[in-house]
Amino acid sequence: MNIGIVGITGSVGQEMLNCIESLDLKFNTLKLFASEKSVGKKINFMKKIYIIESVHEKSFDNLDVVLFAVESSFSKKYFNYAKNSNCLVIDNSSAFRMNDNYPLIIPEINSELINNNNGLIANPNCSTILMNVSLWQIYKKFGIERIVVSTYQAASGAGIKGLEELENQNKEYCLTKNISSKNVFGKQYVWNVFSHNSVINLQNGYNEEELKMINETRKIFNDQKIKISVTCIRVPVFRAHSESINITLKNKATEKEIRDILNQTQGIEIMDDREKNNFPEPIKASEKHNIIVGRIRADLGQEKDKGYELFISGDQILKGAALNAVQILKLYQQKYF
Amino acid sequence: MNIGIVGITGSVGQEMLNCIESLDLKFNTLKLFASEKSVGKKINFMKKIYIIESVHEKSFDNLDVVLFAVESSFSKKYFNYAKNSNCLVIDNSSAFRMNDNYPLIIPEINSELINNNNGLIANPNCSTILMNVSLWQIYKKFGIERIVVSTYQAASGAGIKGLEELENQNKEYCLTKNISSKNVFGKQYVWNVFSHNSVINLQNGYNEEELKMINETRKIFNDQKIKISVTCIRVPVFRAHSESINITLKNKATEKEIRDILNQTQGIEIMDDREKNNFPEPIKASEKHNIIVGRIRADLGQEKDKGYELFISGDQILKGAALNAVQILKLYQQKYF
Known about the structure:
2 copies of one chain form a homodimer. In chain A, strands 10-8-12-15-14-13 form a 6-stranded mixed β-sheet. In chain A, helix 4 (126-142) packs parallel to helix 6 and helix 4 crosses helix 9. The radius of gyration of chain A is 20 Å and the shape is globular. Chain A has 337 residues and is of the alpha/beta class. The longest helix of chain A has 19 residues, at 318-336. Chain A is built from 9 helices and 15 strands. The termini of chain A are close together. In chain A, strand 6 (88-91), helix 3 (107-110) and strand 7 (120-122) form a beta-alpha-beta unit. Chains A and B meet through strand 8, helix 5, strand 9, strand 10 and strand 12 of A and strand 8, helix 5, strand 9, strand 10 and strand 12 of B.
């Protein structure tokens, strides 16, 4: 299989490369693409040197699959090139996620849709992936009527520049307590918490991140009726996202049944030690493939056996982006190569 | 009126003093108490010098009201002294909050109970106060069936030592990236998020902070049936707490009606600019008397006109503790002096 990655200099692109190695994905050719300013730079990967190329209309001619880790506008443009080259795209942007022509895939949930692609498979939003993997088996077995979720999102969601701004603000704080680096978020991030910086729908007051979590979950669960209430907040954490999740089941389940199903859920690790106060934390989830799930408890605010609360942390660059995309790639390879 | 403050060297005690000044509370005598190691130290307050005293059985003999800003065990002990001295206690600890003999007061909500004290008025938990002030007028007008809340709590809730530990961890991070100051929280706090460090009920999995928010809200709203689902999380913020709040109304209300009622709610300030992404943040709420309320929106996950979402930030040392206590003191003075 001949593969490519577009956006190799970004944090997601870099992790895609790492995931290709850690998932032991076999390939013949690997091509790495980035914007003009990085063209010609060398990348050392698995003892071979790769030279970064720019994307042009024929870039994907000899590739079977290309992973996109670029902004929506670039995904749209480059998808046309890939179509003409008959090269499958696995796209991390939001450009095609809600387009009915293309499947939106989380391997633990709906890998069967991999066949129904029209040349593109969309990779879901990071916060959506973390929540959906954690809830899917509960959903399948007992049904979920409603989800209320509040997020604790890391700087990494805003890319390398977001991460750097948080670091720079802290350096400024340490030296002078005077914070002036505000280009990315437009505000003080260190020692603060703020509503997610995506564009807000002025009519309904929801930001894009929140609407993604609602709409993408409905598409992935194939359930237009599931009720989702979501608030997305950024916290001064570098890498992993956390989520406080409250669910209302359709059918009753005991806490033991919920724990049993979570124990069998692929892609998660349970960390739930009440005695030692050992629960999911973003620093524990950073650079891990599994999402950490804990604070599992019957909701005192709902009818017995109908409501549960969870707290989860997951690496948004890995399972929230790069790892999920490479898992799709691996599934595709197993099926067609 | 002769007044005293016990626990004057703590962060809440210090702010009680500031609130006495900012609320322009008149008094004849003011006595300041702390533990043995601070006895004899001088405190400069409103151009007078006060000398810190230790607490003994007769300490409150000539006082009308004393504010306690100490741990529960000390509140219990000193309340006996105050009772014998016929001195009213306003207690910031959790020792008597859920005791039916004593009122649990937020002046914006249930100031009428100030008469029904048996020598002690309890000051509610910080997170409870912030949520209750924000929701009370909505509750009164439309009824609230259910609340789902997730908190973003600051280090200040763990006192001066908690604040110092977060600062020290950051200094260590800046110098060596190696974090070893973990005496208070037992874990990395800087660049991290974790489940609230209060004791966990091993049976139901809720921590004390969460149970306080449930039980105290029910007592303050005088509604044993209100459903409350709560998850308490600490974030690396110094001073103010934030909360993501989702409510289900008993009776329908339009978004305009909710905004109108919030506009008339005492003790809050609305900050809700969707165009500029200007919403409540803990650094904006720090050292402010008002709680900031924003992200007010009709919940897309509930029946039309039945569900709303809010995000709030409030200074937990001020309205969450010291200010609320001094407001009670002022009410009491206006009534009886």
